[in-house]
Amino acid sequence: MAPRLMGLPLQLQQFAARPILQSSPLAFLLPHIQQTQTRQASILGSLSDNPSAYNKRIRRGRGPASGKGKTSGRGHKGQKQHGKVPANFNGGQTKDIVVHGERGYTNIFSADLATINLDRIQDWIDQGRIDPARPITVRELLDSRCIHQHRDGVKLLGRIEASTLKQPLHLVVSRASASAIAAVEAAGGTVTTRYYTRSAIARIMARETHPFLSLAWTAQSGNEALHEAAGVSDTDKEGEVMKAMGFRFRLPDPSSRRDIEYYRDPAHRGYLSHLLKPMEGPSLFFRSPEERKSTAGVKKEKVLPENRLW
């Protein structure tokens, strides 16, 4: 919008008050003068920023009215007023990190996983130490000494060339990287991530529980190739398999929200991903935009009577 004029000089106002003949040399100014006289006050005097577009700069040392006068907010005397103090400076005495030692900087909730790369698994297969026709679980990796300690589980990594993986593999591990999943699936195999604990792995090694079947992971998990390689049919249930193989303990399933969300995610090839409903995300708290749209339903149009306009 073009800025409006504040007003006209006194001479032009007096000139505009007198009648102007159409034949006068100044007749061409008549429409402009009449238009400017009918306009209201200019908007230039009311222009301002948005409420959050401007923050007033703090002016230090400009008197007590500013709130930052005299000492400028630094207080009285001392090193902090006269100069700068290094971080973690403790007055020149022995540092706290020397007296009390290092504390923190460690995530106590992170899982301590043993890592294994695909090239090492392929090397073990070439040596005949692992049977690729059977599912490769933490039990096969520990029995063949492909890994030497299980810790909280096993994480599969994808350090392998494109043509190194020679046969399809069916792997069941705690976690897997995106490159490892892509390499195994490109060779026609499957990767399934499954929840383990230290005590559960110890029972697996003692042949007291199944390496991957549990109450939450039934035949409806959708991994038919893995079940076929393990010799488990679609109708077999966990209790029947345990009774047939003589297992004493059940394999635990995750109970914390972090673990449940990880193994519900199809991107991680989690063994609980078959529990997701259509358009449902792996999160237990947040809902995906598609799920929110589906639960909101179709918005009904408001029908007004004939005698109403709005």
Short description:
By secondary structure, the protein is mainly alpha-helical.
Name some characteristics of this structure.
6% strand, disordered N terminus, three-stranded parallel β-sheet, mainly alpha, 310 residues, Ribosomal Protein L15, Chain: K, domain 2, two-stranded parallel sheet
What does this structure look like?
It is a single chain. By secondary structure, the protein is mostly helical. The chain has a domain at 114-275: Ribosomal Protein L15, Chain: K, domain 2. Helices cover 28% and strands 6% of the residues. It has twelve helices and five strands. The chain has helices spanning 10-17, 30-38, 79-82, 96-100, 118-126, 138-143, 178-186, 198-205, 224-230, 238-245, 257-263, 289-296, and strands spanning 114-117, 154-157, 170-173, 175-176, 190-193. The longest helix has 9 residues, at 30-38. The protein is flat and about 95 Å long. 19% of the residues are buried.
Class from helix and strand fractions: mainly alpha
Number of helices: 12
Q: Calculate Rg over CA atoms.
A: 38 Å
Helix-residue proportion: 25-40%
How far apart are the first and last residues' alpha carbons, in Å?
A: 31 Å
Strand line-up of the largest beta sheet: 1-2-4
Number of strands: 5
- Largest sheet: number of strands, sense, barrel closure: 3 strands, parallel
Question: Rough shape?
Answer: flat
What order do the SSEs take from the amino end to the carboxyl end, as H and E? HHHHEHHEEEHEHHHHH
